[in-house]
Specification:
The protein is α+β, with helices and mostly antiparallel strands. The protein is built from one helix and ten strands. Helix content is about 15%, strand content about 55%. Strands 1-2-3-4-5-6-7-8-9-10 form a ten-stranded antiparallel β-sheet, with helices on one face. It is extended, with a radius of gyration of 21 Å.
Amino acid sequence: MKTNKLMIAVALAASCAVSVAHAERNRDRDHGRDHQRRDFTTDVTRTTGSGKTFTRHTEQTATDTGFRRESTMTNPEGKTSNRIVQGNYDAETKTYTKDINGTRMNGDSYSAQRTTQKTDDGYNRTRTRTNAEGETATRQVNAEIDKENKTMTKTISNTNFDGETRTKTITRTAQPGNSGAE
């Protein structure tokens, strides 16, 4: 029981910390403070214990509202894969969108998109993934935060690549003055 209380307290604390961090980041951005992503280029070479070498080249370009990052990986046989990640924040609608597109070393392609929109009492998040066969899987999260009662309720709906949908609701309540570590 103490472990469950501790887990709930930690989850709520983390949720609040993330919300505060996002609010501070948005406040800083709105007030001209510089907490934007940066442009960078990295090259990584890794050699396994058996002497096989893998490389990765990544370039990121920052924009006023987000970023674009492209990575290319090469395996010891010379096959390559690539991944493009783009993120964008729309301050007017308080929406952050992240798109991922890539091709695996076997030639299969994949994509995903995640959109998070802040609401008056929490947030809504939608994630859609598409596999190499063109099938899609989705996840929708609606989170409502009741600051007065110190609760967070999430309704989560997952639809897998086979079309099967599962929905669950989770409510977490903070216990003031009780961290669970008695």
